[in-house]
Design brief:
The protein is an alpha+beta fold. The protein folds into two domains: 1-87; 91-211, Beta-Lactamase (2-Layer Sandwich), CATH 3.30.450. Helices cover 55% and strands 17% of the residues. The chain has helices spanning 5-87, 102-109, 146-164, 206-211, and strands at residues 115-122, 128-133, 138-140, 174-176, 184-190, 196-204. Strand 5 and strand 6 (196-204) form a beta hairpin.
């Protein structure tokens, strides 16, 4: 039996509805894909922005820390230059055997902040090393310790120069940092003939600036 006109119309309407539903579903899926792509792009941009921000923040933090450390280092250098000039400039005559004890009174007169230990080396007294003892005040021969080892190591090159009879027409402070716990500043003392008669030195007190 051949389909009637009504059945044909119903079939066309059904196909039209199906096409409409299919287009709507296609549009829905297309919109969903577009949303997902947009989210992925947004997340990618956000990740890139955060990564870039983190890198720039790290660079800025390093630059700030570098500036702070430079400022602290400069402050430390200025401080120790001042106290070294004040504490370690001793007259050459006090390094003679009979006058050596006077160095303890020179040290006592000067207020010295930032020095863990003061010491002298007297070449007229066989190049012996003496530590300043503020309680006396007096000079004492140091006992074996890390501080003593650091002083011996720092003053050894000067002993060689003295034995060779090298004249020091210009004297500058020298710094020995081989022992990071016991950094040492040395001022070579010369007589009127530019010969080294002794060394005045200090062991830097690292805790001084840490406690400030």
């Amino acid at each position: 039996m051949a389909p009637s006109g009504i059945d044909k119309a119903s079939a066309r309407e059904l196909r039209a509805v199906e096409r409409s539903v299919f287009r709507k579903r296609l549009a829905l899926w297309g919109g969903l894909v577009a949303v997902i792509v947009s989210l992925v792009v947004l997340l990618g941009l956000q990740w890139w922005w955060l990564t870039d921000l983190e890198e720039k923040t790290a660079i800025a933090r390093k630059a700030t820390m570098r500036n702070v450390l430079d400022a602290i280092t400069k402050e430390v250098h200025v401080h120790y230059l001042k106290i070294s000039e004040r504490a370690l400039n001793l007259p050459p005559e006090v390094f003679e055997a009979k006058a050596l004890e006077k160095t303890s009174y020179y040290f006592k007169k000067k207020e010295i902040f930032g020095a863990k230990r003061l010491f002298v080396v007297s070449y007229p007294v066989h190049g012996k090393t003496f530590f300043y003892e503020p309680k006396g005040p007096s000079l004492v021969i140091p006992e074996y310790s890390d501080e003593t080892l650091a002083v011996w190591a720092a003053t050894a090159p000067w002993k060689i120069l003295v034995k060779k009879g090298v004249q020091q027409k210009t004297t500058v402070f020298s710094v020995d940092e081989r022992d990071p716990v016991n950094r040492i500043i040395i001022n070579p003392i010369t007589d009127e003939n530019w010969e080294i008669v002794g060394l005045a030195g200090m062991i830097v007190d690292q805790c001084f600036f840490e406690d400030e």
